[in-house]
Design brief:
A hairpin with a 3-residue loop joins strand 1 and strand 2. By secondary structure, the chain is of the alpha/beta class. Helices cover 40% and strands 13% of the residues. It is built from 16 helices and 15 strands. The strands form four sheets. An eight-stranded mixed β-sheet has the order 4-11-10-9-8-5-6-7, sandwiched between helices. Strands 12-15-14 form a three-stranded antiparallel β-sheet. A two-stranded antiparallel ribbon has the order 1-2.
Length: 478
């Protein structure tokens, strides 16, 4: 963190000084900048690279950095209003509005303004990410023989085998040949939806559910149909009815530490989900995003649905991203039967394959002792944060209701008092210096009540959690 901050700071200082030099004039040497600002050679190199990327300076190996030539004036903008028609009109007699809306997802991806405590994020804080292990893995991966050659379209064999063991469990019910390496979980989800359902088709989703599946479904021309969730996971009585009523052939679910409720699908309902889908001739897309995020005091986890499905009903999604880093975009799809070739074809058409250096880095990471150390660290930290977080919620937010406290993941789903204006609360919270996620983002239809999703993993530490909830309590009281 300190290195990245110093790079940005130095780049800002140099950016303010560039205009003192004439185009083509040489800037002070790297040695002079090191001595003047008391930073490392790496910091100077990275700061100059930032200015070069912005077109402010030109670097010449062995000669130094020079102010770039003055930019030409930007050409006047043309009239792009015609695009509104082109992006909305369908051929034929009908005009059907179309849109690709990423707002649901951007809410958890955008950086917060300075001074705002992040209780809305979807990733672990950088202080909880294994940055040194990631850097070491990337360095080792780059030196592997063939690391920069084209990988197999399905993924590097050893990485496919690792995912197969992780998904299939000790009984080895998933084979490496069943695994397709993907560019993270969201890419896997989009690939699955496009492969399994034609445009215009319904797709059943938990309610509430992960906003990314709603965005991906709409972008693919699908119709998300909500099926309510309680503390034991999806209501399977309503799931069977939804299949009958809609004719859907796809059900998306998160059986373990569901986002946002944290629910774990009960053993009875696990069997029912597979039985109902098999009888209907439908696929179950199992998003297993949080398996590595169990707390230290969590009970034993149930196996994946995929490991108990010999008939190819389940299309399983796994990812390293939530547990390691948002930039480690490596995940997997596991599927049996002809559907595997459909998934593979969609991914090849979209992106060919996941870059081999990234796959090799992931393989280096999961095979290193640092991986298990990171798992123990995260399990202990999340367990501690949950206890602190829950105590603060009960103290600072006495008017909210917490129906379920999950033993995994890093979210808490809280219900606001009846009649509360959810939008007003999130806006007031942001003004008070804390970002929270409004519950409406997690519903495919009208929400039954006002909720907030509170994240305990995106804050820097326990102090920020305590302060953030105090600010939220003040916003609710006001």
């Amino acid at each position: 963190m300190q290195e990245r901050s110093s790079v940005a700071e130095l780049a800002g200082l140099l950016r303010g000084e560039v205009n003192r030099y004439s185009p083509g004039e040489k800037l002070p040497s790297s040695r002079a900048l090191i001595d003047r600002f008391r930073v490392s050679p790496v910091t100077v190199s990275r700061a100059l690279a930032v200015l070069a990327a912005e077109g402010l300076v030109v670097t010449r190996p062995g000669a130094g950095a020079f102010r770039a030539e003055a930019r030409t004036a930007r050409a006047p903008l043309g009239d792009t209003s015609w695009q509104q028609v082109a992006l909305s009109a369908e051929p034929g007699d009908r005009t059907v509005p179309r849109s690709v809306e990423a707002g649901r997802m951007c809410a958890g991806l955008s950086p917060q303004p300075p001074g705002v405590i992040d209780l809305a994020g979807g990733y672990l804080h950088p202080a909880l990410q294994p940055e040194h292990a990631l850097a070491a893995a990337l360095g080792r991966a780059g030196r592997r023989p063939g690391a920069w050659s084209r990988p197999p379209l399905e993924g590097v064999d050893a990485l496919r085998a690792w995912f197969a063991r992780t998904i299939g469990g000790p009984d080895g019910t998933v084979a490496a040949s069943d695994v397709l390496v993907t560019a993270g979980g969201q890419s896997a989800l989009t690939t699955a939806l496009r492969a399994l359902a034609p445009p215009g088709a319904p797709v059943l989703v938990e309610s509430p559910t992960y906003p990314g599946v709603l965005a991906a479904a709409h972008a693919s021309g699908l119709r998300p149909v909500p099926v309510p969730v309680d503390a034991d996971g999806v209501r399977t009585d309503l799931l069977a009815e939804a299949f009958r009523a809609t004719g859907a052939r796809v059900f998306f679910c998160q059986p373990l530490y569901q986002n946002p409720t944290g629910a774990v699908l009960s053993a009875e309902r696990r069997r029912a989900v597979l039985r109902i889908a098999r009888a209907t001739g439908a696929f179950v897309v199992e998003d297993d995003f949080a398996r590595s995020l169990a707390h230290a005091d969590a009970p034993p986890q149930p196996p994946t649905l995929a490991s108990e499905d010999p008939d190819g009903v389940v299309v399983h999604i796994a990812s390293l991203t939530k547990f390691a880093s948002p930039s480690l975009r490596v995940g997997a799809l596991a599927a049996r039967g002809p559907v595997f070739e459909r998934l593979r074809a969609v991914q090849v058409i979209d992106s060919f394959f996941v870059p081999r250096p990234l796959q090799e880095a992931a393989l280096e990471l999961v095979g290193s002792p640092a991986w298990s150390r990171h798992a123990r660290t995260i399990a202990a930290e999340l367990s501690t944060r949950r206890r602190v977080f829950l105590a603060c919620v009960r103290r600072e937010l006495p008017s909210v209701t917490v129906d379920h406290v999950p033993p995994g993941g890093f979210h808490l789903w809280v219900r606001l008092p009846d009649g509360t204006d959810e939008s007003a609360v999130t806006a007031a919270a942001l003004r008070a210096g804390v970002a929270v996620a409004p519950g409406r983002l997690y519903y495919a239809a009208e929400p039954p009540a006002a909720h907030l999703r509170l994240c305990m993993g995106a804050a820097a530490g326990e102090g920020e959690l305590v302060e953030g909830l105090a600010r939220l309590g003040a916003a609710l009281a006001g």
